[in-house]
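New to this. Please check this fold:
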Amino acid sequence: MTNSLFDVSGQVALVTGAASGLGWAIAEAMAEHGARVSLADVDAAALERGLGRLKAKGHSVEGIVLDVGDRPAVLAAVERCAARQGRLDAVFANAGISAGPSYQLAAEGEIDHTDMALWDRSLQINLHGTFDTMRAAATPMKRQRHGRIIVTASISGMSASPVSGYGYVAAKAALVNLVRHAAVELGPFNVCVNAIAPGFFVTNLAGGRLKHDAATAERLAAQVPLRRLAYPDDIKGLALFLASPGSGYITGTVIPIDGGVSAG
């Protein structure tokens, strides 16, 4: 029946980077629609506050303090989640960090001034941490012959970005092809692997630049066909869809959610 196409109630889901921004919006949406959600984040205090809000509404949630840059911890966390719940239906590999400004915004964003420590940290979190989350999720999903792996990529990984640093665009571009590669391998196990590619979202990333720099926010909004920046709640519909039965024949895709920027 069509009323069950977009039903995620009873699903077991894990969301990384879930204490704020896009991860929080995704976790909140899944919980509000009846999923049992494990929220993972490195920020223990923010995670506890978020869990309190969701539990107060009667949602089935738990918290995992997790740095996705810690490979053994990622593998252990996903394994424990699947074992405790008996299965793992959807994993949102969302955790990520900024890698500094682009060359259009500041001199330190220029290629010959790149902060290599920040470059290394960006690849560790945005690429290696995401890949570790994906590969950890694949084990129980292959075993149960069902699952959804949803990666937060970026339109910054699909073309040159006016706001992102080199480490960020490199990591996000790599994720685009990782998603396609994993989708081909895992398809025979009925595991769908897709990516969401956000555009200009107002979050805490890059120190919350778009929250505090009105001039930059206004300039970027003018480049968006919908003439506005996005907010975390804008990601909820797509996240729910990709976790739901309604997306069962969609895999290996990278779906921009950018107000039309990538169409230009």
User: Anything to note?
Assistant: The mean pLDDT is 94. The beta strands are 12-16, 36-41, 61-65, 90-93, 147-152, 191-198, 254-257. The chain has one domain: 2-263. The chain is about 45% helix and 15% strand.
